[in-house]
Write a structure and sequence with these properties.
The complex is a heterodimer of chains A (about 400) and B (about 150). Chain A has about 400 residues and is α/β, with parallel strands linked by helices. In chain A, about 40% of the residues lie in helices and about 15% in strands. In chain A, strands 2-8-7-6-5-3-4 form a seven-stranded mixed sheet, with helices on both faces. In chain A, strands 11-12-15-14 form a four-stranded antiparallel sheet, with helices on one face. Chain A has a two-stranded parallel sheet with strand order 1-13. In chain A, α3 packs antiparallel against α11, α4 packs across α11 and α13 packs across α15. The longest helix of chain B has 15 residues. The mean pLDDT of chain B is about 85. Classes of the chains: A alpha/beta (about 400), B mainly alpha (about 150). The complex binds pyridoxal-5'-phosphate. Pyridoxal-5'-phosphate binds next to α5 of chain A.
């Protein structure tokens, strides 16, 4: 391990407030380092003013800080231009803007969109709301027997000539890392616009949108050590230019009369209303904090925690593991055979192990494998081996209680 | 068709639980022993026909599934329930709620606070509107059932 775990943990005040809990719900949201809280505190206590609007110097300072945050994100993703970073309130909001925006300019009656069985509802329901009623058809890449993205079937489905291919970088329900380089290459060769749902991917590995050549990439600040209520829709300029704005109002216009309005340039065209200024600044602080850490060591540490957890789980034969230990971003979904995941999770909750149970906003995935759901353990850089061992003991206690 | 004796059979089972297991639960100190009892309560209920696992009886808002049947005696105005869930702990918690209110009239029900028992037994610190915990949804359905039939 190339980092000092106790001193890393000290940077997260949440753990001081809850010393007796073990937090293994990191795929739901991450805790925030002090640096993020400080940046937001400084914004509200020293910089707060509305951005882009007012003539006074205070507003100009706030605007400068806000736009610097955008540049931080652009550099983090290696985007060509800052205006390719659109602030959203999160991945979900980003998808709603994206799907709505594609309708008309890109997607029309009879066009096809390709997603996968592993998608989060955020990459399913917006298509239902904004696209399917207008005659767009949705095709779905199935999973292989070991719950992986089926590249062979994907290649076949590309022959249907989807206009858009929209796939998760990492499955939030299983932790499996999708073969995104292949997905992007094959989809682009088939002439599709490629969207990656990076909600889980962004915190796992460095994403370079130019090398990847992806057209859109979405993520949420709160899953990247940042605040809630802020997210990013990255898009290549030529595709962002096509999007129709979902939200209209202040800031996104050039001129307005009562009969018509003309829209502002990117990125403001897609950012109606007063933006989440503190959120953007908090997210940039999270990225700057992360860039000072050893990302490779974080990744290795999460792999090691997962390995330790898997070894323990293998000692409990009644467990059914839905996730595999390889090409996995530190998320383990499992069930106790013949028991409801809610029961197992409640017994873990009693022992102050924070996990998530249910269908993890991926109901179609669980329909596909005919399960009621799962209990999901997701590991973070700040978790320790001791926590894994205590979790395994708690898991054994829960399993014993349910077996009686 | 709903077999009408499901309500009388459930009422008997709930009465037994109220008399036998509830005092036992009050005695127990550690959480494991409490949950051990809680998770067996479901076995005391009469069999719930799989035919009643219908959407019309399904309580919305639960990660686990819960089905609730309600019946009001036209003569005595008492309210009765029958119930099933595919998760054992939620099922046990609902049984503890129903054991306190099954057979009450609307006036009696209005004065009851059955959820307090769960706090008292330290089985559920607070009944939160969390989606993963269907308890609140079932509780609301029980209350609404009484309100709309009084
Ligand atoms: C893969 C994936 N996509 C989308 C989302 C939605 O993110 P948010 O709820 O922050 O909008 C999540 C988070 O739950 C996720 O894990």
């Amino acid at each position: 391990m190339n980092f000092n775990l106790p001193s890393l943990r000290q940077q997260f005040p949440f753990f001081d407030a809850h010393p007796d809990w073990i937090y293994l719900d990191n795929a739901a949201t991450l805790h925030k380092p002090q640096a993020v809280l400080d940046a937001m505190n400084v914004f509200y206590s020293q910089q707060n003013s509305n951005v882009h609007r007012s003539a006074h110097g205070l507003s100009q300072q706030a605007t400068a800080a806000f736009e610097a945050a955008r540049t931080t994100v652009a550099q983090f993703l290696n985007a060509r231009f800052s205006h390719e970073i659109i602030w959203t309130s999160g991945t979900t909001a980003g998808f709603n803007q994206l799907v709505f925006g594609l309708m008309g300019p890109v997607l029309q009656f009879g066009d096809r969109v390709l997603i996968s069985t592993m998608e989060h509802h955020a990459n399913i329901v917006p298509w239902h709301i904004h696209a399917l009623p207008f005659g767009v058809e949705l095709d779905v890449v199935p999973m292989t027997a070991d719950h992986r993205f089926d590249l062979a079937v994907f290649t076949e489905l590309l022959k249907l000539k989807p206009k858009v291919v929209s796939i998760s970088h990492i499955s939030n329900a299983l932790g499996h890392i999708q073969p995104i380089a292949d997905i992007v290459r094959l989809a682009k060769a088939a002439g599709a616009i490629v969207v990656l749902d990076g909600a889980q991917g962004i915190v796992w590995e460095q994403v370079d949108v130019q090398t990847l050549d992806v057209d859109f990439y979405l993520f949420s600040g709160h899953k990247l050590y940042g605040p809630t209520g802020i997210g990013v829709l990255y898009g290549k300029t030529e595709y962002l230019e096509l999007l129709r704005p979902l939200l209209g109002g202040g800031e996104m216009i050039k001129t307005v009369s009562f009969t018509q309005s003309s829209w502002n340039d990117l990125p403001y065209r897609l950012e109606a209303g007063t933006p989440n200024m503190a959120g953007a600044i908090g997210l940039a602080a999270a990225i700057l904090w992360l860039q000072q850490q050893n990302l490779a060591a974080f990744q290795q540490h999460k792999k090691n925690l997962m390995q330790r957890f898997y070894e323990g789980c293998r000692q409990i034969p009644a467990l059914e593991l839905l996730s595999g230990p390889t090409t996995n971003a530190g998320i383990v979904a499992l069930n106790l055979k013949n028991e409801h995941p809610a029961d197992l999770a409640t017994l873990l909750d009693q022992q102050k192990i924070a996990v998530r149970a249910g269908t993890h906003c991926a109901m179609p995935l669980f329909q596909a494998i005919n399960r009621k759901g799962s209990v999901r353990f997701s590991f973070g850089c700040y978790n320790s081996f001791d926590e894994i061992d205590r979790t395994l003991t708690a898991l054994a206690t829960a399993v014993e209680l349910l077996a009686e | 068709m709903i077999r009408p004796d499901i309500f009388t059979e459930t009422a008997t089972a709930l009465k037994n639980i109220y008399d036998k297991q509830l005092p036992q639960l009050r005695q127990l100190k550690d959480w494991q022993s409490k949950y051990r009892v809680l998770m067996t309560l479901g076995k005391e209920l009469p069999a719930f026909d799989s035919d009643w696992h219908r959407d019309e009886f399904l309580v919305q808002g639960c990660e686990s599934k819960a089905w609730l049947l309600h019946y009001q005696d036209p003569v005595t105005a008492q309210h009765f329930w029958a119930f099933d869930s595919d998760a054992r702990i939620v099922k046990g918690l609902i049984i503890l709620i129903l054991a306190q209110v099954n057979g009450l009239t609307a006036e009696e029900f209005a004065k009851a606070t059955p959820e307090l028992l769960l706090t008292e037994l330290q089985l559920q610190q607070n009944i939160s509107p969390s989606r993963s915990n269907g308890l609140l949804a079932v509780l609301n359905k029980i209350k609404n059932g009484v309100r709309s039939h009084c």
